Amino acid sequence: MKKKLDLLEELQGIDQTIAEKKTEQAALNAGIAELEQSLAAVQSSLAEQQARMAELKRERAELDTALHAEQENIRRSETNMKEIRTNKEFQAVGREITAARKQVSDLEEQQLQLDARCEELQTTIDACQAELATLADSTKNGSEEKQTVIATLQDAIDAASVKRDAIVKELSSSLVRRYTQLRDQRRGQALAEARDGSCMGCNMQLPPQLYNMLFKGDEMYFCPHCQRILVLKQEPAAAVE
């Protein structure tokens, strides 16, 4: 029976080690995902800014077209004035030229405002691109470092799993099944130390008769409170002076 308990105790230690390393892997994978999310956020922001810049450039092109059209209208009207014979027609064309010049002035003002917005946005885009380049490098390096650790942890998990399989083969399937059920129910701890008359798994006092039976080591006993498999642990005897 002692051999079975020793094997179960070793099995529990291996399972706890595997669980811990898998938890470490999960944390590292979460860290990689966080790095990638940060990078994606900057990429998305840059894409939005570049789309806005494209829209501003489209508006600028439309202003250029409108300005060119008004300037052509002014030139055409000024040419036509030379052929006008009546004062009334002269005044009408003059009003058209004045209105067109006002429109030109407004369009030029809009161009200046748009150019200022483009310049400001370009500064933001340049800063975002610089941030993205730095973040891309740090994300790549950070992810590679984490992947290296994840791979090392996986090697340890694989090695532990081989040892686990060897131990399981030495135990009956019913005992392994019971151990697995307890481990699932008791947060990874199917076995508990019995020390000084108590179960260290649930910190409850064991019945004296049960505790005394543990010393015989002829059977497998379970804590009546938490149902864990009990493993007797005795304090070393004090040295006699």
Describe the structure.
By secondary structure, this protein is mostly helical. The protein folds into two domains: 2-169, Helix Hairpins; 187-232, no CATH class. It contains four helices and four strands; from the N terminus they run αααβββαβ. The chain has a four-stranded mixed sheet with strand order 3-2-1-4.
Give me a quick take on this structure.
This protein has 241 residues and is mainly alpha-helical.
Beta-strand proportion: 5-15%
Helix content: over 70%
Main sheet specs: 4 strands, mixed
- How many separate structural domains? 2
> What is the structural class?
mainly alpha
Question: Measured on Cα atoms, how large is the radius of gyration?
Answer: 41 Å
Low-confidence residue ranges: 236-241
Strand order of the largest sheet: 3-2-1-4
Taking the alpha carbons of the first and last residues, their distance comes to 35 Å
Features:
single chain; 241 residues; mainly alpha; Helix Hairpins; 2 domains; four-stranded mixed β-sheet; 4 strands; rod-shaped; disordered C terminus
SSE layout and pairing:
Elements: H1 2-81, H2 87-169, H3 173-185, E1 191-195, E2 198-199, E3 204-205, H4 208-214, E4 229-232
Parallel strand pairs: 1-4
Antiparallel strand pairs: 1-2, 2-3
Helix pairs in contact: 1-2
